[in-house]
Amino acid sequence: MSDTIDYGKLMHRAMRGLIQEVLTGVAEHGLPGDHHFFITFDTRHPEVEIADWLSDRYPSEMTVVMQNWYENLEVDDEGFAVTLNFGDAPERLEIPYDAIRTFVDPSVEFGLRFESPDEEDYEDDDDPTPPEGDGPDSGHKHHDAEVVSLDRFRK
Asked: Is 145 helix (H, G, I), strand (E, B) or coil?
């Protein structure tokens, strides 16, 4: 048992659960009212699946908007998949929660930003406590979640 609690990792897992719950509701009932999402994700994440032309155009990060046109939203414990329209070209995207960098709903001024992980951090680790002997200076990495300013999304 570790002598520290990794609050960053616990918060990251809780915020992923919040995104899953929101997207599950949208998959079942559609977007209510004026709600819509800006979702920025790391296109280099090993479990992201997007068309080659999208990964060529967005080699590190991409922001998608779920608002007026989206189809086939599927949500599970690992992430979500959705078909979005890119200039009259529908494309299927599969995005794991761990690849998400920001999740923003500007209609209610809600936003989350996740720390960008290093590539080795993409390994699945559900244990919220660091391994035995890891302390704050041991190089153990975690993911932090925080509220993001919506100013950059305003028109």
From this structure: strand
Query: 6 vs 13, 115, 141, CA distance in Å?
Result: 11, 14, 10
- Name residues whose C-beta falls within 8 Å of residue 140's C-beta, 6 or more positions apart in sequence: 6, 130, 131, 134
pLDDT digits (tens, 9 = 90+) for 33-63: 999 999 999 999 999 999 999 999 999 999 9
Which helix (H) or strand (E) covers residue 73, if one does?
strand 70-75
Cβ–Cβ under 8 Å, residues 143 and 128: no
Name beta bridge partners: 124: none
Does the pTM exceed 0.85? Answer: no
Distances (CA, A) of 5 to 10, 13, 21, 136: 9, 14, 25, 10
Q: What is the pLDDT of residue 52?
A: 93
Q: Helix H segments across the chain?
A: 7-29, 52-57
